[in-house]
Amino acid sequence: MNIPIDFTWLEATALACVRITAFLFFAPPFSHATIPIRIRAMLGAGLALAVSPVATAGYERLDTGGFLLALVGQAITGALLGFLVLLLFSAIQGSGHLIDTFGGFQLAQAYDPGMAINGAQFTRLFQMTAIVLLFASDGYQLVLGGLFRSFDAVPVTGMIDLGRPAEALVGAVGQMMLSAVQIAGPLLIVLFLADVGLGLVTRVAPALNAFAMGFPLKIALTLMLVGFVYAALPGVVGSLAQEAAKMLLGVTR
After folding, report:
1. Is residue 160, in this structure, part of any structural domain at all?
2. Short-list 117, 112, 82, CA closest to 97
3. Is residue 195, in this structure, part of any structural domain at all?
4. Angle 107-33-12 from CA coordinates, rounded to 5°
5. Residue 38: which domain range?
6. Using one digit for the tens of pLDDT, what is the confidence trace for 160-200?
7. Residue 2 falls within a domain, yes or no?
8. What is the pTM of this model?
9. pLDDT-based confidence at 243, cuts 50/70/90?
């Protein structure tokens, strides 16, 4: 029994599998620790088979040294692209952290091994909600679409230009901080005005000790108004998914 094996197709698909798997280990929602490593590896292999017609176009077989270098290059490319997506979606986690800090919930922070974050209630709630929305709204398909189109610009034998991810990284950090403030901004303004009001009351009537009511008042305001911020998360996640897809295309052109 003779089973022919196309080693050219096999090598190109293996290189594509390395890039996709490295991406899945960093990019949300696939980077969640509750997804077993073997599942992510199997998903990477399956997606590599789907993208193999693009990956094998124009591919020529490499020697052993060249193939090993190509494997390293694809791992670096996938990890960089995944980290950029992770950084962009950290804006939602950052907005939850701001709400915890200004609302008085930061004292109850704990480490979540599933998401590998150390935060209080709203930090973890917003992060879990973002992951659920990515799956429910098919936002993950936009992210994967951006990854797949990267094979058109950067073949499996090449490596991403490190200057472009570095530039995108600087922009993504600024975008993350701006998005976090924009998401939690209205609630932060209300909590700031509550602090100002308590300060004025303390100045007018020091005997009342208005700051003693500060913690329960700010917690009550946060619980009453956080629903408006939470209701805006579906639109925010959709916008971030589109931005992530554009970023992946931008750094690979």
Report:
1. yes
2. 117
3. yes
4. 145
5. 7-252
6. 766 666 777 777 777 777 778 878 878 888 888 887 877 77
7. no
8. 0.80
9. confident
